[in-house]
Amino acid sequence: MSLKEWFEERRKISGLIEDLIERTSKDYIVNEMDKNKNIKIDFNNRLWVQCDNRENLLYMKYLRQNKSVCEECGYHLQMSSSDRIELSIDHGTRHPMDEDMAAPDPIQFHFEDEPYIDRITSCQIKTGLTDAVQTGIGRPNGIPIAIGVMDFQFMGGSMGSVVGEKITRLIEYATKESLPVIMVCASGGARMQEGSFSLMQMAKISTALYTHQLEKRLLYVSILTYPTTGGVTASFGMLGDIIIVEPKAYIAFAGRRVIEQTSGQKVPDGLQVAEHLFDHGSFDLIVPRSLLKGVLSELFQLYSSIPCEKERTLGSVSCNDQQLSSSAPRNESNSDTVSSRVEKSE
Length: 346
Prior knowledge:
Function: Component of the acetyl coenzyme A carboxylase (ACC) complex. Biotin carboxylase (BC) catalyzes the carboxylation of biotin on its carrier protein (BCCP) and then the CO(2) group is transferred by the transcarboxylase to acetyl-CoA to form malonyl-CoA.
Largest sheet: 7 strands, mixed
InterPro entries: AcCoA_carboxyl_beta, Acetyl_CoA_COase_Trfase_b_su, ClpP/crotonase-like_dom_sf, COA_CT_N
Distance between the termini: 110 Å
Strand content: 15-25%
GO molecular function, one term: ATP binding
Subcellular location: Plastid, Chloroplast stroma
CATH architecture of the largest domain: Alpha-Beta Complex
Main location: plastid
Helix content: 25-40%
């Protein structure tokens, strides 16, 4: 065998070995990916979680007992919608609405790696929810209310057609039954996978609130949590008669990165944080999570004690309060009723 033939033989053998290694590696990776698809990680059973503010480790058991607030720095971590409902209303008083409503795929949107429907299904399995909001009726300290809570764990709390429909139905039911509405917002904005269908929800919810607040003169309280951005901020998030925000919450329409890339200017630190916006009149109250339930109860009692309409012709005051529920607790001060919004006298 000549030297040239020997080199050619070695080159062929090397090529065969490389092909074999490449095929073997691909088969191994594919098999491992198939195995990992069947592995389910239960994040609810984690023992430790990291604080988003100082990055220190927090024991999950104590964190839940402290309402997901860091004991060291007081930072309010994100909560699931189920935990927020449990925090906001009395135990055993919740009656959910439209639990089985699930999202369609109106524009046949597909990711590069998975269709939109598959993404919805994976989020449903992960969170146990059908979409990014839970709605229903409950009682904080015995006062009947309608409550909706958004869940950021479900596709970033994005607002699609199901989210808009559930919130609209909740408001319409509350208007019919003369109940105040509480809406807890945590969202990245409109859901891009549904195109203009998601943007239509902004107008639909705002129209329902117009009837609830201005025509029926009923109370709507908006609670903004970390983060609330995009179409939710631009619609029902900022339409509350009273707007409450959690400490250090990130509230914005466009995010910091989008603003900087669009305008070419650096956004100052803290510009879109709750405390800075509160100083400029964007919100009514900054309320820590531990005090929220009591503050809401006091607000309802305050609104129930204020006359809602002044009859100019007779010069007398008449209150057209409507009872929240026939089963609501009664006392001598009529604290089981919630008045309509106060019309300011000229």
